[in-house]
Amino acid sequence: xxxxTLDNLIDKWSNNSITIEEKEILMNYYNSxxxxxxxxxxxxxxxxxxxxxxxxxxxxxxxxxxxxxxxxFWKPLYRVAAxxxxxxxxxxxxxxxxxxxxxxxxxxxxxxxxDVVLPDGTKVTMNxxxxxxxxxxxxxxxxxxxxxxxxxxxxxSDSMHPFxxxxxxxxxxxxxxxxxxxxxxxxxxxxxSLLHGKVEVLSKDEKYTYSTLEPLEKFxxxxxxxxxxxxxxxxxxxxxLPVQFIDQANTAPVDVAWKEGxxxxxxxxxxxxxxxxxxxxxxxxxxxxxxxxAYKYSASFEQESVExxxxxxxxxxxxxxxxxxxxxxxx
Length: 331
Hints:
The chain crosses the membrane at residues 77-98. By secondary structure, this protein is of the alpha+beta class. The protein has three domains: 3-98, no CATH class; 104-242, Jelly Rolls (Sandwich); 262-330, Phage tail protein beta-alpha-beta fold (3-Layer(bab) Sandwich). The chain contains nine helices and 20 strands. The protein has helices at residues 3-14, 20-33, 41-44, 47-58, 62-65, 74-98, 270-281, 290-293, 306-316; strands at 104-108, 114-117, 123-126, 131-135, 143-154, 163-166, 170-174, 178-183, 189-196, 199-203, 209-213, 217-222, 225-226, 233-234, 237-242, 263-269, 284-287, 296-301, 321-324, 327-330. The strands form four sheets. Strands 1, 2, 3, 4, 5, 6, 7, 8, 9, 10, 11, 12 and 15 form a 13-stranded mixed sheet that branches. A three-stranded mixed sheet has the order 17-20-19. A hairpin with a 7-residue loop joins strand 4 and strand 5. Helix 2 (20-33) packs antiparallel against helix 6. It is elongated and about 95 Å long.
């Protein structure tokens, strides 16, 4: 480092414009040479003057901040104070870089879908009513994000830094892949559908690997529920299923049809369809007939209204319905 660069860093330090990286360079450089016989005054400048400029910023008191050629008594204390303060500054830099909790950004979609590009280049397409939390920059050995709702992840490949998505029930760990994750708080299931690559589905504490998915496989996690008597909790059920398609050529997976603006489902109960209708259209369906609620449907819609969807479903399996204010009653 030449004297011009050193002076520039000290000026930045004094006027609060220095970056964390520049501060670390400055402190490392000064601290490594201040006790050394290799200190070259023609390059570094007078060490006492440089220390004085640093101490002015630190405000440690006039006697130590203004040594003179005649004040040789203060020089040993001056250097001890310099070492102590610089050690504190370096410790702060290290703490900030490695231990301070990262700042997380939060993206919520509301009634619209959104595309988000993460700091590593990973792209996340978020469905309605979804929430993504991620750090301003990924550090250490992993890329961790927190997710709720539904999203399609196109993960940037990085074999040295696994990408981990946390939901309240489980985690998904990948290196580079494309998958759909559906984890709405009010859904009874959490679903991970893999299009290509490979993913591991883990317990939320990462002690257990539930499954390792191959392309076009889907992991379904049924949340903890209460048994019919309402007395005990039923353990979550898990299974791996093949991805299903809405076209005969098997090129359009039903789980990512929403990315193309489609509202599609295969062998889905009317209750689950109603939940998606409320999420997508903001219209609540109330069932007075449990048998009708258990009907299963397969269909694909794009621009149809709720009334048009109900009319189409009614042609497959008959039911009656009426509109009451903001909701539709099914019976």
